[in-house]
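Minutes, project check-in
Item: structure for the 308-residue chain
Input as provided by the requester:
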Amino acid sequence: MSVSVFIDGAVGTTGLEIRERLGGRADVSVIVLDDERRKDARARRQALNDADFVILCLPDESAREAVTLIDNFRTRVIDASSAHRVADGWTYGFPELETDQAERIAAARFVSNPGCYPTGFLALVRPLIRAGLLPADALLSVNAASGYSGGGKAMIAEFEGGGTDTAFRAYGLSLAHKHVPEMTVHSGLTHAPIFQPSVARTYRGMLVEVPLHLSMLTKPATVADLRGVLADAYPAGLVRVADDDAALVTIEENAGSDRMTLRITGADESGQARLIATLDNLGKGAAGAAVQNLNIMAGFDATTGLTL
């Protein structure tokens, strides 16, 4: 069985990464518009309606507009923007998040790809809330750093074209980042976490960290207990839980792959823990996640075309 896929926004960073993962696959036929036809509204609309699957790699407003151009009940959509991540009628495209999430994605017509930062945060926090260890009204903060490719072509040009010589910078200082609603809703938290994003001088890679006082838990638990909850939540697949006591963790640990590694470190004596996720912001944080969702929706093996 082969399915047709149209990537709307295929010349952007995420679109190019998706196209690379789909290249050479006999089970996927990619609908390609040349530069002239890509700018032709009629040709684009036809491609949106001809495809079995559409993957939107567009700004939020453009993604919303693209959905309105699909006038059939057959074409299925994966939106890589943040436009529909908490929207009614859309299934959240994080297959590992809940025990039945992959089944929901398989049955869905409209799937919203998770954000890169929320992917790390939710993978760490959601199992602890679901297990009843971390209260839903916990006041959390999340510190995160991404490679500069997460900022798209403009930021890539800035870092690689001499526009900046900084090694690390914080942003989102107004605490109103567009990822916060997604983190709050899909974690099950009643209070939005304090989100502290930053960008580092590395092309790709991401490190997401949630500090935790063990006294915040609903019952006594050790660092090993928390690690066990995560290990039970992610027994196999693209998300793995490290059982080592790493001396250091790098932002590039999973760069160039579509996997994510989770760690819980800390000291029972001090009652403190560090929940850490590493992933590729363009892999499991974007293009890899979109292809994983496509595979699930099309009935293929979830990891086809991905780097484990």
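Outcome recorded: The chain has a mean pLDDT of 97.
No further action items on this chain.
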